[in-house]
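Before a colleague's protein record goes any further, I have to sign it off. What it holds is a sequence and that sequence's fold in token form. My question to you is simply how this chain folds and whether the tokens agree. Thanks in advance; the entry in question is below:
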Amino acid sequence: MTAPLQNDLFLRALLRQPTPRTPLWMMRQAGRYLPEYRATRAKAGSFLKLCMNPELACEVTLQPLDRYRLDAAILFSDILTVPHAMNVGLEFEAGEGPKIARPVRTAADIDKLPVPDPEGELRYVMDAVRLIRRELRGRVPLIGFAGSPWTVGTYMVEGGGSKNFQHIKGMLYGAPRELHRLLDVITRATLAYLNAQVAAGAQAVMVFDTWGGALTPADYREFSLRYMKRIVDGVTRESEGRRVPVILFTKGGGQWLADMADTGCDALGVDWTTDLADARRAVQDRVALQGNLDPSALYAPPAEIRAQVARVLESYGKGHGHVFNLGHGIHPDVPPEHALAMVEAVHELSPQYHG
């Protein structure tokens, strides 16, 4: 039996229900900017080992909540756990990001890909979700997540991060049928993975489309949005007697917010390159919006951070349906007290936009 939720502001805001203030959390809130995270990661031995250890993943998930007045916890994991379970040979090299030993570039490569069992190869993630829910004791809701099929596919085909997307765009333009086959396998794996997270206790889910902004509008709709819509359609939307909201986030996707709202999701993440007032007009209050302070604003002195928070809140304006967040993940070298300045400013300045 899980503890009743003491703070549901985040879930209410995602469903565009009234809240007394704007709830907030931070992308990558459990991360390298916190000395306690760095200590736990050192104990784990590597980033991947930290992801695969439910007790330590739980520990780092809770760390930012002990430090800041946040309204949600996000599962500590990585968007590449799914390809890792598909046996493509994932490693994280210090300072270089993820590397995939066996990139997926041919029809034969795609044929070999399994759809992993979330309670088998990915059991460590589900165990982490269950443990975090237990340890949260109802303090705040828990967000589960996955990468978008396009973004995960990009890593799998490129063999890591990419500047010009040579291999995946080569496939997109030269072998689109094969790329659709790959995206279909990833979508099926992702749906099973997210639904298992909800069954294990995730109370909202987010799909991170990091590389969608690299596509043309037509290609975005065909190769990214189409598969995110399948996820929205197939993910469990009711659990423990509550709706499970779905957030979609395409970095660099401001021009497609109206199309994204058409998927039937509950909320959209907005990066810092789109004004929230413009985003709100584009979606016509059909979905909640999450964002969107430039993460680099946290390098500024606390007084300026407060001013930038005020600008974001003013940009969204009065009414419900806003979750305050950064426009992307917090940078590793941001001083923790600067994040505190942001959190405190949201608590202090946001009530005037509600009620």
In short: The longest strand covers residues 142-147. The mean pLDDT is 97. The two ends are 34 Å apart (CA to CA).
